[in-house]
Design a protein that fits this description.
Blueprint: H1 7-16, H2 18-52, E1 58-61, H3 66-73, H4 86-93, E2 98-110, E3 113-118, H5 120-123, E4 133-134, E5 142-145, E6 156-157, E7 183-188, E8 200-203, H6 204-210, E9 239-244, H7 247-256, E10 263-265, H8 267-310, H9 312-320, H10 325-366, H11 376-392, H12 394-402, H13 405-411
Parallel strand pairs: 3-8, 5-7
Antiparallel strand pairs: 1-9, 1-10, 2-3, 2-9, 4-7, 5-8, 6-7
Length: 412
């Protein structure tokens, strides 16, 4: 009598058909990996981009593309944007319900790290973000660096385009002297896991002066920074980051300054529009991945059917040696289920590893952290394939089950 344990026969079959086994497993694995990579990358991009916008409750800019305004100010993507007039943004800053209104002025860079002019309140996010080393800038010529900027506290540096021609003075004499702008690092911010970790924050007055704008600071003059500014000399800015006192103030301010002279928006709203587009792309890619899986499973099924038909004599011999129909059925079903299950597990690992590698590459391109987390969707994808494999395995197992010993020996 033959042993009732089907696994020795399964193991022997796998060893005998090693090439077919691995081709089947890899086909299933690649189809699963594709689906997992698509789903996890879309989620990773959502998480990373949303985290990068956490510091921007309300943005005010000149009329134009809201997407461009968000990409430029929140994600520091270099684009040409219209400037918000000084009169308008000073009006926003002086409005009721504003905790702080920080001008965001894009100037130069140091070794690829963007130099952004703003105010101390933005640098410490309204006293909610304390430097890990040093302090926040308090006067002209000082800088605070993000966690990924390779400058030590106390280091000095010049921007890549630090020279400028000053405009004509009041007497009409052109001052042709070039001034080299130098900053001293006075603080380092903690990691925020977004593009601002690679930015350098300086007083907005320095950025204006480097570019020949607003060389005076009202009556204070000299090295004074921050408000109050002189409306006659203040420069236009690419964006104004507003921190409202409350949610109600945020909605009121957005409605107040969404007009012909300015645009006010919540970055989350713009991101939601982008997410809808990404979601459509994800759904399309997921559909393609599922279609690929179905085609792969069908191809695997056809290959296995051909293989099992070629092994009809083997199964007939097993029956003749005393193996029951249930035994042969279990051998065939276990082989099919193991192949698809092994492919699904390997595919999950490949998809996770590929998504990690892709996220790392995208982080370098986009500048913000993209955490990879496998969720319920990926689990459903793998589980559904394993269950499908178990169900699909019933077909060749049933065909083998119902064939008589005589038919198997004759066909051999």
């Amino acid at each position: 009598m033959i042993c009732f344990n089907p696994f020795p026969v399964v193991r022997a079959d796998f060893r005998r058909n090693l090439l077919l086994v691995w081709v089947t497993v890899l086909l299933v694995a690649l189809s699963v990996a594709t689906g997992i990579a698509v789903i996890s990358q879309e989620r990773s991009l959502r998480l990373g981009s949303a985290r990068a916008a956490d510091d921007f409750d309300l943005l005010v800019g000149a009329p134009g593309s809201t997407t461009q305004l968000v990409l430029t100010s929140v994600y520091l993507r270099p684009q040409s944007v219209p400037l918000l007039e000084g009169e308008t943004w000073l009006k926003v800053a002086a409005s009721e319900g504003v905790k702080y209104a920080a001008p965001i002025a894009f100037g130069d860079n140091w070794q690829g790290h963007p130099i952004v002019g703003s105010i101390a309140d933005f640098a410490n996010r309204g006293n909610t973000l304390q430097p890990t080393l040093g302090r926040i800038f308090a006067r002209r010529g000082e800088a605070v660096v993000g966690a990924n900027v390779p400058l030590a506290v106390g280091a000095t540096f010049s921007p890549a385009h630090g020279l400028h021609h000053a405009p004509d003075d009041d007497d009409g004499h052109a001052d042709t002297a070039h001034a080299v702008t130098r900053y001293t690092v006075v603080g380092r911010l903690p990691a925020r896991l977004n593009v601002w970790d690679s930015a350098i924050l300086v007083p907005v007055e320095d950025v204006w002066q480097v570019h020949g704008l607003a060389l005076e600071h009202g009556a204070a003059g000299g090295r004074h920074i921050g408000p109050p500014w002189d409306a006659k000399t203040v420069a236009g800015i690419p964006a104004l980051a507003v921190k409202p006192d409350s949610v109600a103030d945020a909605y009121r301010l957005r409605g107040q300054f969404l007009n012909a002279r300015s645009v006010a928006l919540f970055p989350a709203e713009v991101l939601n529009d982008l997410y809808l587009t990404l979601g459509n792309v994800r759904d399309l890619m997921s559909l393609l991945a599922i279609t690929t899986q179905v085609l792969v499973v069908l191809a695997v099924l056809m290959a296995l059917l051909v293989g099992f038909l070629a092994r009809r004599r083997q199964f007939a011999v097993l029956r003749a040696m005393g193996a029951g129909r249930a035994y042969v059925f279990s051998v065939v079903w276990i082989e099919v289920t193991l192949l698809i299950s092994l492919g699904a597990v390997i595919g999950a690992l490949l998809g996770w590893g590929g998504s990690m590698a892709l996220s790392h590459w995208l982080q370098l391109q986009l500048g913000f952290d993209m955490p990879v987390r496998l969720g319920l969707s990926e689990g459903i994808l793998v589980g559904a394939l394993v269950i499908s494999g178990a169900l699909i395995g019933l077909l060749p197992a049933w065909l083998t089950f119902r064939r008589s010993i005589a038919e198997g020996l004759v066909s051999g």
